[in-house]
Amino acid sequence: MSKDRRPPPSSDSRQARLTAALRANLARRKAQARSRAEGETEGDKAAGLMTGSKNNGPAGKTPDEGASED
Fold first, then answer.
1. What pLDDT digit, counting tens, does each position of 11-59 carry?
2. Where do the domains of the chain lie?
3. Superkingdom of the source (predicted)?
4. For residue 33, what are the CA distances in angstroms to 24, 44, 57?
5. How open is the CA angle 7-10-14, to the nearest 5 degrees?
6. How far apart are CA 20 and CA 27, in angstroms?
7. What's the predicted TM-score (pTM) here?
8. Residue 28: what are its φ and ψ, rounded to 5°?
9. Which residues contact 9 (CB under 8 A, 6 or more apart)?
C-alpha cells in the first residue's frame, strides 16, 4: 500500500521556473506599456482625450469646481 511519491523538486528547477516567469511577466508588461503609449500618441491625442486628466467630475468639471464655500 505504499504510494509512489515524487521526490521534491530541486531548488534549481524552482529558481529556473521563477526566472522564466519573471522574464515573461516583464516582457508582457513592456508590451502593454508600449501598446498604451502607442494608443495614447495616435488615437487619444487625435481625439482630444487626455489620459490621467483631472476632469473626473460631472460634465467635465473637477470635483472642486462648483462646490460652494458656505
1. 889 999 999 999 999 999 999 999 999 887 765 555 555 555 555 555 6
2. 12-42
3. Bacteria
4. 14, 15, 27
5. 125
6. 11
7. 0.43
8. -65, -40
9. none
